[in-house]
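Example record used in the benchmark description.
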Amino acid sequence: MVGPILIALVLLALAAAARVWLPRFLAAFQAQTATQLSERNAEVDRRLDSVVETMDRRLAELDTKVDRRLESASQTSIKIHERLGKVDEATTQMLQRAQDLARLEQALRPPKARGGFGELLLENLLRDRLPPTAYQMQYTFDSGERVDALVTVDRMIPIDSKFPLDNYNRIVEAETDDERALAERQFARDVKQHIDAIAAKYIRPDEGTYDFAFMYIPVEAVYYELACGKTGALLAYANERRVFPVSPTTFTAYLQVIALGLRGMQIEEHAHEVMAYVADLQRDFERFTDDFDKIGTHLGHAQSKYHDAGKRLDRFETKLERAVEEQEELEAQTVLELPGVAADAA
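Model output (structure tokens):
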């Protein structure tokens, strides 16, 4: 019975103590909790202020970047519009060039017009590469045949412009192998006719030409068809007849070699003139040497005579001195003898 009573007393004592200390503990806990909450609230406020400040700064930077990006995008858009305008302008110019080429193609359809255009291109090429005295246009031979151009090096080189475009266009536009083969045969026939005409009319060694001529083809594609088509049979045919087909590119190389040859001939001509002048100088120098030798001979004779005359003069001076001495001796003897003669006379 004592045990339960003691437990009850202890519980009553604890309850009384709790009734006294519990409000105090709760008050202290509430005060501490309030302080901590206040501190936490202040810390949260500070952090919120820092976050807000950071967010404001980031948003301001973002606004600046967005403004710059928008400005850059605006400038890029302006440049794109300008370039699109230039592209439109270039497209318009290309269309105009295409129209011009179409008109030029229409204008070059007649063979005479193509021939005149080829001659114009040939003249421009010669004018750009050679001096005016090295070529002439529309040269007429004694037979009355007229070649488009003539280049003069040591002898004359005839150059005729040919523009076999019709059958070449048929080769390009052929849709079947049969059409292409027919166009190639027609193209080869036209080219052979041109080669034979050039060989017969313009290769005239008896009138001062070389034994070959150039056939100028203004279009590179036509030249390549002639040189490379059908394993080069047309080119071999032309070479056999001493007619050399050339395009603007290959003929430019030929003209460069001719220009160098002309320059070498000028240098050689000047060298001959210099050699002739040197030969004249050599002849003048030889004459001067002869005259100088003669003068030396005469001076040698004069020097010899001078030495001989000097020796004779020395001998004459010696004789003269002796004569003077003898005369003085005679005079002295005469003076000594005069008193004696006077004494004898007395």
